[in-house]
Automatic annotation (TrEMBL):
It is found in: Cell membrane. This is Transporter. The chain crosses the membrane at residues 24-48, 54-73, 126-147, 159-181. It is a multi-pass membrane protein. Keywords: Cell membrane, Membrane, Transmembrane, Transmembrane helix. It comes from Halomonas urumqiensis.
Amino acid sequence: MYTPGPVNLLGLNAGLNGQAKTSLGFFVGVGMAMLTLFLLFGWAGAAWVRDDMLAAVGAVGCGYILHLAIKVARSTIDLGVVRKAPRVLLFRDGLVMQLCNPKAMIATLPIATIQFPAAGVHGAGLLLWSLGLAVLAFGAPGSYALVGSVVGRRIENPWLLKGFSLAMAALLVWVAIIIGYEHVWLPLASGEL
């Protein structure tokens, strides 16, 4: 959950742009999405998830990541006065992005369908473990935002901040390409679906 990915990079970008506090809803949305996935997969089981669904969700997720990359790239940053601040990330953004993130599904599916049952985690235990992991998921982009806000205060050149935003946008595009290739293109090209 704490490795660089689209959700954490957006958290870092929010921190750099002084939006760590206003993006708390985004972080809650990420945690809620993970809670939903853990509970859904834990209760419904692996039989419910079909391979063709993962490719479709992956395609939607790639589209949304590209949309956010464009928003980050277009943001204008002026350290004196922010003329056009990047759009504040909302609860909905975190929820949708994480629900459509194949990495989130790939992370939650084996835990909820293999590791939880092997450890005897079910019923109320499933809810408690899922809540704990959701709190960790909330903390991942939150910690990146915290780092961004600390680093952002030390940057005095607006071009550095704009360059960083463009780099974050490029990384988001790269993540979308990788997800699209591995989780949409390869399954479609190999005829797995």
